[in-house]
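in:
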């Protein structure tokens, strides 16, 4: 059958040799900047005397550390990541034209939404720098070194370049890693869906069904589950910090947005809201993409039992043994994407987190009735 012939294409290890990628100069510059920014955030966090400054520096440290950890994982595991992308690109060639088109459209929509929020963040950042003053902005980002420039024009040129570099490195690194994770999760989901279609084609054709095609189908399933395992080994620390930083940042930002709403100007309030929306979008895209991929994997087991419900075991003993072994493989293989082995990225976990955050928001509103009244009345 054509299905069996196509499956063998993805099971030859000689065609997927792991390539050693060199460490590029822009990787080194990115790592140096992110680690210096995180170190600066740690020092500022330790030097604060509590109060509002401490919590604001804590949110800055959380966001910078998430980008730093993402860049570290990309650089340290770039060879394994490149090998994983190679294997997934081979599985992508197996998709039908409709699946390829749907896959590309989802990735394109997600990229457009994410870059839209990044553009909003950049506009708000430019507004804050304008209100702060370029000299103050340069003083903060050059680690409090008093640098005398020749003219104000030079200050704005250097400040504009620094602003673009900061936006590209900080949010660009984080957005790239998040979109890459979503892209790989969506590829896994489509791979399991393609596997289900292969099972339907194999078991519904009774005339040419034999143990050889069942064994090839089993090897294809093992191939996809190995992709999930490799992806989990690469990204599980990053996903843990992404989720942890999301929870802490949202709690802190919501507390101060509600408590200080009456004393905040509109630009500061919008800046805080769009940061919350960007973090929320990142967490939502990670959680939904991972949970949908694993749900698609779990659908393979009932699909197999439905297809083999009327299977005639007396037709061939070797075929019956192959089907039984395949059933055991499907029933005992645990497919999951985790965050540093502490939790499964599933809908249950996401609903739990959203429930906790919702309860926390209600609690903050109850403790600040004046802020709740001001937000409702728009004052």
């Amino acid at each position: 059958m054509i299905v069996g012939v196509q499956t063998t294409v993805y099971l030859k290890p000689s065609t997927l040799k792991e390539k050693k990628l060199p460490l590029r100069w822009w990787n080194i510059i990115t790592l140096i900047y992110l680690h210096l920014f995180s170190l600066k955030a740690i020092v500022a966090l330790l030097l604060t005397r509590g109060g509002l400054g401490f919590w604001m520096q804590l949110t800055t440290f959380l966001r910078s550390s998430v980008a730093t950890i993402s860049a570290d994982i990309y650089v340290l595991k770039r060879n394994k990541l490149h090998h994983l992308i190679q294997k997934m690109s081979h599985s992508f060639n197996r998709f039908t034209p409709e699946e390829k088109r749907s896959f590309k459209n989802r990735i394109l929509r997600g990229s457009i939404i994410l870059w839209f929020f990044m553009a909003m963040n950049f506009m708000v950042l430019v507004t804050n720098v304008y209100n702060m003053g370029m000299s103050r902005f340069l003083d903060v980002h050059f680690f409090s070194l008093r640098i005398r420039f020749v003219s104000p024009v030079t200050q704005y040129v250097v400040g504009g370049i620094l602003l673009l570099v900061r936006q590209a490195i900080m949010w660009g690194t984080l957005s790239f890693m998040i979109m890459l994770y979503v892209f790989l999760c969506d590829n896994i989901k489509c791979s399991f869906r393609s596997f289900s279609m292969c099972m339907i084609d194999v078991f519904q054709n009774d005339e040419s069904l034999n143990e050889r095609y069942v064994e090839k189908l089993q090897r294809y399933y093992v191939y996809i589950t190995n992709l999930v395992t490799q992806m989990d080994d690469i990204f599980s620390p990053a996903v843990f910090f992404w989720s942890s930083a999301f929870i802490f940042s949202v709690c802190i930002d919501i507390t101060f947005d509600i408590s200080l709403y009456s004393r905040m100007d509109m630009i500061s309030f919008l800046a805080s809201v769009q940061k919350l929306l960007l973090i929320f979008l990142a967490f939502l895209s990670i959680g939904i993409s991972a949970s949908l991929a694993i749900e698609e994997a779990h659908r393979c087991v009932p699909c197999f039992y439905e297809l083999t419900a009327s299977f005639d075991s007396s037709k061939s003993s070797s075929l019956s043994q192959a089907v039984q072994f395949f059933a055991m493989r499907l029933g005992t293989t645990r497919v999951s994407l985790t965050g540093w082995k502490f939790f499964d990225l599933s809908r249950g976990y996401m609903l739990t987190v959203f429930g906790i955050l919702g309860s926390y928001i209600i609690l903050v509103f109850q403790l600040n009735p004046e802020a709740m009244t001001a937000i409702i009345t728009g004052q």
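note: The CA atoms of residues 255 and 364 lie 6 Å apart.
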